[in-house]
């Protein structure tokens, strides 16, 4: 054990639903390859029991084959996991994969066509990658996709700066998780979410000393961005937060399960 | 035991209230000592912030201070270094290049860092992206200067590896509000481990971020101990033993 042993601080915390999981690699950075096997092993090793999984292949190259890849992972997979290095976490366990459909905002017509294809296949959430696709919040495609998702009550998991990306979803009774909310911008999320009961935020970048404690607990959902971010960081922050045990359980999965129906 | 070489004291302008959080948070993560700069000094008024910090440090046994320098205010900097370094409550100098709009390579920051070298203490300098390479260049060309690259370039950590390998008086500390996978392990594998330090950016960022990122690197015991405190003791010439 070293001075940087996180296992004791995280304790027995289990995440029952992680809304921010990817398979695939970013070609523009030296990150992990993101094979499904390695991603699921990383989740299991951190006691993450279920994940909303989206495809970088779909986001960056080909929507249909990427989405089919995550659809093929649907269900409970695996029975063992290795703990994250230095995390002191080594629990074995299966991971329940909830496939998330990715759409390409550079092609709004094709995006809606892909939603039409995915919905009968049981997909309950779509994911937007505006930063990766070079799409701004004010582009018509974002509002077009937001309207279509809201029409079916789909959950939208969206990247992008929450100070801008709240707007295309406003007034639609949309169910949205802002995956990139940084604690610098927490005030903007809070005032936008006050008028939008469907607005939620991921915990991933809420790393200031009191951000988790400032957001209404029923609007917080655990997100790690495994395998491209270190899952131990949001785990550690949640485990050591000032939230009550019931609130921690809700953030660690209960809220997301309610949202996904 | 951990020494946090990048921490702050004072209020922030974001949606946060951290006034009561500091000591309990340090205890939680095993941080015995934090070296802090005053937020007021970093963001707005260096002399006023340094003065307030000096008064507060007199009440705390678990903190040392950085004298913050605004490179655009060299006379203030000279006076503050003369006044606060001899007190023994300040261990180094802090320079934030963004809040003062004084890039590392600017004439005023070069001059400020020369002043720090003459004072004989390390300087913690904010680095982001490729600016850490500029810090290595300035450090290499300033005799006797020892610098800590704050955030080790943040998302530009590959540049931090290059910088640390270009100048043996440049140290790295990892604090960053993002935690890209493998960032700390890649740096630890590529840089002289006697020049790696631990910093959190507390009270702006909870230590969970930096602590978790280092934990995820799975460092061997000896390297972890160097990063946790031994390297800081040597760099700041602190009277601390295990």
TrEMBL record, chain A:
Residues 211-261 form the Amidohydrolase-related domain. Keywords: Hydrolase. It comes from Nonomuraea fuscirosea. This is Amidohydrolase family protein. One of its GO terms (molecular function) is hydrolase activity. Pfam families: Amidohydro_2. InterPro entries: Amidohydro-rel, Metal_Hydrolase.
UniProtKB/TrEMBL annotation, chain B:
GO terms for molecular function: carboxy-lyase activity; hydrolase activity. Residues 3-238 form the Amidohydrolase-related domain. Transmembrane segments: none annotated. The keyword Lyase applies. It comes from the Bacteria. Keywords: Lyase. PANTHER family: 2-AMINO-3-CARBOXYLMUCONATE-6-SEMIALDEHYDE DECARBOXYLASE (PTHR21240). This is Amidohydrolase-related domain-containing protein.
């Amino acid at each position: 054990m070293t001075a940087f042993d996180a296992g004791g601080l995280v304790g027995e915390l289990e995440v029952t639903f992680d809304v921010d999981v990817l398979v695939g690699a970013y070609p523009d950075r030296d990150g992990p390859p993101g094979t499904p096997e390695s991603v699921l092993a990383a989740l299991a090793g951190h006691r993450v029991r279920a994940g909303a999984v989206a495809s970088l292949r779909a986001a960056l190259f080909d929507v249909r084959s990427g989405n089919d890849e995550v659809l093929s992972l649907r269900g409970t997979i695996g029975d063992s996991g290795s703990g994250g290095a230095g995390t002191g976490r080594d629990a074995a366990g299966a991971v329940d994969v909830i496939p998330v459909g990715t759409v390409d905002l550079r092609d709004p017509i094709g995006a809606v066509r892909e939603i039409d294809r995915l919905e009968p296949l049981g997909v309950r959430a779509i994911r937007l990658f505006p930063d990766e696709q070079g799409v701004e919040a004010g582009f018509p495609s974002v509002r077009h996709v937001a309207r279509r998702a809201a029409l079916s009550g789909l959950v939208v998991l969206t990247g992008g700066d929450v100070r801008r990306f709240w707007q295309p979803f406003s007034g639609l009774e949309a169910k949205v998780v802002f995956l990139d909310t940084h604690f610098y911008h927490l005030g903007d999320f809070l005032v936008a979410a006050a008028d939008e009961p469907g607005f939620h935020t991921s915990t991933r970048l809420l790393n200031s000393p009191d951000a988790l404690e400032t957001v209404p607990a029923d609007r917080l959902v655990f997100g790690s961005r495994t395998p491209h971010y270190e899952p131990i960081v949001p785990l550690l922050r949640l485990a050591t937060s000032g939230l009550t045990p019931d609130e921690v359980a809700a953030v660690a999965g209960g809220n997301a399960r309610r949202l996904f129906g | 035991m951990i020494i946090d070489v990048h921490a702050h004291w004072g209020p922030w302008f974001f949606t946060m209230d951290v006034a009561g959080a500091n000591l309990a948070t340090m205890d939680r993560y095993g941080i015995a000592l934090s070296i802090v700069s005053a937020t007021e000094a970093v963001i707005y008024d260096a002399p006023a912030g340094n003065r307030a910090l000096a008064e507060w440090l007199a009440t705390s046994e678990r903190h040392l201070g950085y004298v913050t320098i605004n490179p655009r205010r060299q006379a203030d900097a000279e006076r503050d270094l003369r006044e606060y370094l001899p007190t023994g409550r300040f261990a180094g100098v802090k320079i934030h290049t963004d809040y003062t709009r004084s890039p590392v390579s600017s004439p005023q920051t070069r001059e400020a860092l020369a002043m720090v070298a003459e004072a004989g203490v390390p300087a913690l300098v904010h680095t982001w992206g490729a600016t850490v390479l500029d810090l290595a260049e300035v450090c290499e060309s300033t005799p006797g200067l020892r610098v800590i690259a704050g955030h080790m370039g943040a998302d530009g950590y590959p540049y931090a590896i290059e910088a640390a390998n270009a100048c043996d008086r440049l140290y790295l500390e990892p604090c960053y509000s993002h935690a890209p996978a493998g960032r700390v392990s890649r740096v630890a594998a590529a840089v002289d481990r006697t020049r790696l330090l631990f910093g959190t950016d507390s009270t702006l960022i909870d230590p969970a971020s930096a602590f978790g990122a280092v934990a995820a690197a799975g460092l061997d015991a000896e390297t972890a101990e160097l990063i946790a405190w031994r390297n800081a003791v040597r760099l700041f010439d602190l009277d601390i033993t295990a």
